Amino acid sequence: xxxxxxxxxxxxxxxxxxxxxxxxxxxxxxxxxxxxxxxxxxxxxxxxxxxxxxxxxxxxxxxxxxxxxxxxxxxxxxxxxxxxxxxxxxxxxxxxxxxxxxxxxxxxxxxxxx
Length: 114
Description:
By secondary structure, this protein is mainly alpha-helical.
């Protein structure tokens, strides 16, 4: 099975987001109890999420649209096409459904080749 840079970048974005948002259940657990036995899990989860987010950010510069050669998961400051994805995390979550559209030119992207 060939792993593409786009799939790898999407996985890093998804897992990194989940790890960073593990702060919310930990905060609820901490407000209910005074147990500090799981504090290391929060630190590990946040550190892993940050590392995965950095790796996704670096890989995002190699995932480009075949038509317009602009970055698929980096929005930039220019206005995007209507009815496309708003940001890179939305593209990462839709990457495996093959419903990804370029936010710059509006073309449907075949994610198997990227």
